[in-house]
Amino acid sequence: MLKRYPLLFALLFLGYAFLYLPIFSLIIYSFNESRLVTVWGGFSTKWYGELINNGPLLDAAWLSIKIAALNASIAVVLGTLAALTLVRLRGIRGHKSLGVMVTAPLVMPEIIIGLSLLLLFVAMEDLIGWPAGRGQTTILLAHVTFSMAYVTVIVQSRLAHMDTSIEEAALDLGARPVKVFFAITLPMIAPALAAGWLLAFTLSMDDLVIASFVSGPGSTTLPMVVYSSVRLGVSPQINALATIIIAVVSTAVLIAGVTMYRKELKAQRKS
Amino acid sequence: MNDWLLQLNNRIRTLVPGKGLIVGAPWFWLALFFVLPFLFVLKISLAEPQLAQPPYQDWIREIEDGLITIKLNFGNYAMLWEDELYRDALWGSFEIAAISTFFCLLIGYPMAYAIALSPTHWRMPLLMLVILPFWTSFLIRVYAWIGILKNNGLLNHFLMSIGLIDQPLEILHTPTAVYIGVVYSYLPFLVLPLYATLVRLDNTLLEAAADLGARPWKQFLKITLPQSVPGILAGSMLVFIPVMGEFVIPDLLGGPDTLMIGKLMWTEFFSNKDWPLASALASVLLVVLIIPFVLMRHYEQKAAEELK
């Protein structure tokens, strides 16, 4: 293939270069002694040291991790239910409207989601007194709303391509539907649930725009701290933070990818 | 055949416990936190701003017991219509979204096609390489371009050291930088759906064409490209719609002359504290985006049907 379409694969390679050049530049310059991008002042880990002593940034990171983990767990449950509806309950009431409601957050500009949720929270507080003020709760509610849409897409494609014969066999043998779901369906879609959880987690960790609208005093998330220091220009501390995030994410994705790849190879060999 | 499908469908339905809860939980969540809020945006867009907390005056007010007045304020919409700034911003957003979608296609299509043509065991790793940047922070990836594009940044440094230019090019804080940032950030959104379409294309037609002596380039134009049109259109909307409301990229990479509606909304809301005007802007953007959204749903379904 490579020989048949040399131009095509050259373009693919250029595409990867475009995708990875900025990422590598961040990693390299996070170890730069000098503050300037163009000057190499020697290898140094001093920016990592400054990062560890940056109290406000660490507090924000911890808050973001807490919200992201909670968000991912709720989003996986709701997203899985939505995916079950879309794949297996065709024709049930609310099927079509759910399909539209779950696709729209994927493309809806964040700035609209943020503003509209803030106005809702203000009105709700006025009417029923909950959620009281803006802070972690409102950020969590907002994040679940858009991340469950992504979870739905992932679980939906898994459910749609799943072999249903085992489930049917269990039903024929008299197992109750609830039992079948927990004993067979759930383990079979588990990889999709894990991928959905991770994606929901990173989406929440990454959100600046929506959180800026619905957060309150005392609930500053990591992207908000990053944004305010990045607005002033290049900051080596942020390069160090970026390198840490990239390292964690690529390790997680690599482990997940290799595990899934091996499983697939095994399955192919068996069949 | 149909009977058999119906039976299967009914049987699968019984596999799922507690149907009401399954549909109900996500349905009500999205109705409450995604659909209902738009009504509040519409409502506040007709309100009058005031210096208070919250900074708008409710247009339904109870003066005395039971006596309710309704005072609508269309001034926000009138202002959007009359002030050129807002029209320019809407047009600017459209221009940037449309042109960047085109460039995403130009770069993304060959990538998706190359991955679809590569041997089966290569595809997963190659796709993962496209997805991986998407998993690392969006904000930080946009920020990375500041260091590359600024006057004393990496790109200018490189171009001057190889003697291509004498003076640093001014790229950061210009529309060019915004285009680069947008194409860079949204490229994976287009590669993935395109790959999904291309990898499942019917190869028999291509083989027939090759047997009849068609050249590869002609095979592509006459067979592959037309077949992938629904995938192209669905994927393009996946880029176009969110870029229309983009804030982070024009804010960090664009300059004062980069007018985009998302950035303007942010300023109206956070700097000017004009919630009603920001809501009016959001309403206009929402209405504008309905058409591409409907198109996207249509072509997504069409692409899915063609694959069956």
Describe what this molecule looks like in 3D.
The complex is a heterodimer of chains A (271) and B (308). Chain A has 271 residues and is mainly alpha-helical. Chain A folds into two domains: 156 residues, MetI-like (MetI-like fold), CATH 1.10.3720.10; 36 residues. In chain A, helix 6 crosses helix 8. Chain A is globular, with a radius of gyration of 23 Å. With 308 residues, chain B is mainly α. Chain B has a single domain, classed as MetI-like fold. Chain B contains 14 helices and four strands. Chain B has a two-stranded antiparallel sheet. In chain B, strand 1 and strand 2 form a beta hairpin. In chain B, helix 6 packs across helix 8 and helix 8 runs antiparallel to helix 11. Chain B starts with a helix and ends with a helix. Chains A and B meet through helix 1, helix 3, helix 4, helix 5 and helix 6 of A and helix 1, helix 2, helix 4, helix 5 and helix 6 of B. Chain B: This is ABC transporter permease subunit. Chain B: It is found in: Cell membrane. Chain B: It is a multi-pass membrane protein. Chain B: Belongs to the binding-protein-dependent transport system permease family. CysTW subfamily. Chain B: One of its GO terms (cellular component) is plasma membrane.
What is the straight-line distance between the termini of chain A?
26 Å
Q: Which term fits the overall shape of chain A?
A: globular
Low-confidence stretches of chain B: none
Q: Bin the strand percentage of chain B.
A: under 5%
Strand ordering within the main sheet of chain B: 1-2
Count of distinct strands of chain B: 4
The CATH superfamily of chain B appears as MetI-like
User: Biggest β-sheet of chain B, characterized?
Assistant: 2 strands, antiparallel
The tally of structural domains of chain A comes to 2
Structural class of chain B: mainly alpha
Number of helical elements of chain B: 14
Main β-sheet of chain A: number of strands, strand sense, barrel status? none
Proportion of residues in helical segments of chain B = over 70%
The CATH C-level class name of the largest domain in chain A: Mainly Alpha
Quaternary state of this entry equals heterodimer
CATH H level of the largest domain in chain A: which superfamily?
A: MetI-like
Distance between the terminal alpha carbons of chain B, to the nearest Å?
A: 15 Å
Number of domains of chain B: 1
Element-by-element helix/strand order of chain B: HHEEEEHHHHHHHHHHHH
How much strand of chain A?
A: under 5%
The value of Rg of chain B in angstroms is 25 Å
Subcellular location (chain B): Cell membrane
Transmembrane segments (chain B): 21-42, 89-114, 126-146, 177-199, 220-243, 275-295
Keywords (chain B): Cell membrane, Membrane, Transmembrane, Transmembrane helix, Transport
Domain ABC transmembrane type-1 (chain B): 90-296
